């Protein structure tokens, strides 16, 4: 193989690797969706660790909120729980956390199934269900997991899909809090 063929092959591998990373959501090239203020959406919350049955408005004006949309069948959602838990533990009341399943309740999954999954994966902040898919539609959630950080002004400050590291989650929250 001559030098020109080697350079062409190396460039092709780079392009293919970047394409695969984008396709599998390991790199998120999207900017936060438009900066219009989001009107609060009522999410049904479930009774489980760190969560009480009732409802929660998302977002809450004046407070930074992290929303994680997940599904109980999703392995990447399961793998994401330790990092989310570590970040949750680090922010206390400074940042509001909510994880939301957008699965169809009553078909193959019940509210109890979601609470069981939540307990098994060490969830300890509010968990809810998006039964009417209002949150899913508002934030154009097309894949799970999708993580959103909403600023105190009710605008999407950060959005990403796929499994996130503690550092990535901190970065998204810090931007919304106005920290470097």
Automatic annotation (TrEMBL):
InterPro entries: Redoxin, Thioredoxin-like_sf, Thioredoxin_domain, Thioredoxin_ResA/DsbE_sf. Residues 32-178 form the Thioredoxin domain. PROSITE patterns: THIOREDOXIN_2. GO terms for molecular function: oxidoreductase activity. Pfam families: Redoxin. PANTHER family: THIOL:DISULFIDE INTERCHANGE PROTEIN DSBE, THIOREDOXIN-LIKE PROTEIN HI_1115. This is TlpA family protein disulfide reductase. It comes from Natranaeroarchaeum aerophilus. The lineage of its organism: Archaea, Methanobacteriati, Methanobacteriota, Stenosarchaea group, Halobacteria.
